[in-house]
């Protein structure tokens, strides 16, 4: 997790590189949501607001910036538009269209659920070209009992994989998907599967969450045995995250993953 840098604390050379593209910056403030980028700020300019995010060019996670840039042209209309990017002044920076929205609500009965289903349905038909991706079978191979089992998740669909509510902005009746740092080629049913864990963590029963996920045809048609392997992999992944970061959200997600995996095992 990256420590967020306040706008006023950024290097002057970095601010100059940004303002060379935005024009005079009237105000800037760091956003509180998100964990991957030390630079994440909303800037007010004479031409309106813009959202910028960045990492030092030598940061070990700089590949996530490349993934976001590569995903941007594939998800126009589903995600804020990528306006420009640069790698200079020791930083790699992306600038996006600013969406004035709120984090999605995943609680039972929320109207946002329908918006996310629509968003996920549109996403499910997008194929991934060659790029800076880490395929899901490589991402999850250490979390399955047999590395060969990770091949069950392999596919060519663009998946987001990180469906925390802060990554879905709701604005004027539309859900926008942001933060493509973990964009991954995979079977399209894996995104609904990742999402249903979030639904359970926010108050749905496992049955309710799976019913919602099954509104996505890819999840409804997924091989139950493959879903069970995926559930166990998520249990192992979240147990590791809980061990390394024993904070409330990690504990909640780990307990949720264990409950889902046990429910699949009992069928």
Automatic annotation (TrEMBL):
Output the superkingdom of the source species: Bacteria
What protein name does the entry list? Phosphotransferase family enzyme
- Organism of origin is Saccharopolyspora spinosa
Native organism taxonomy: Bacteria, Bacillati, Actinomycetota, Actinomycetes, Pseudonocardiales
């Amino acid at each position: 997790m990256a420590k967020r840098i306040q706008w006023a604390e950024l290097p002057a050379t970095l601010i100059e590189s940004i303002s060379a593209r935005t024009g005079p910056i009237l105000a800037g403030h760091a956003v509180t949501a998100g964990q991957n980028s030390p630079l994440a700020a909303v800037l007010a300019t004479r031409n309106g607001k813009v959202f910028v995010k960045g990492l030092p060019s030598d940061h070990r996670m700089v590949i996530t910036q490349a993934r976001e840039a590569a995903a941007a042209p594939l998800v126009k209309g589903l995600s804020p538009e990528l306006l420009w990017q640069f790698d200079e002044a020791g930083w790699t920076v992306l600038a996006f269209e600013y969406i004035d929205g709120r984090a999605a609500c995943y609680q039972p009965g929320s109207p946002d659920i329908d918006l996310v289903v629509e968003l996920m349905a549109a996403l499910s038909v997008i194929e991934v070209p060659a790029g800076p991706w880490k395929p899901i079978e490589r991402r999850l191979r250490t979390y399955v009992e047999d590395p060969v089992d990770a091949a069950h998740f392999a596919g060519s669909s663009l998946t987001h994989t990180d469906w925390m509510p802060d990554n879905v902005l709701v604005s004027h009746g539309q859900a926008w998907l942001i933060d493509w740092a973990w964009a991954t080629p995979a079977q399209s049913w894996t995104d609904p599967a990742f999402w249903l864990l979030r639904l359970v963590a926010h108050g749905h029963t496992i049955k309710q969450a799976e019913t919602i996920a099954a509104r996505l045809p890819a999840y409804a048609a997924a091989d139950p045995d493959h879903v069970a392997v995926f559930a166990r992999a998520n249990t192992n992944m979240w147990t590791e995250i809980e061990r390394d970061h024993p904070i409330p959200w990690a504990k909640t997600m780990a307990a949720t993953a264990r409950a889902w995996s046990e429910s699949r095992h009992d069928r």
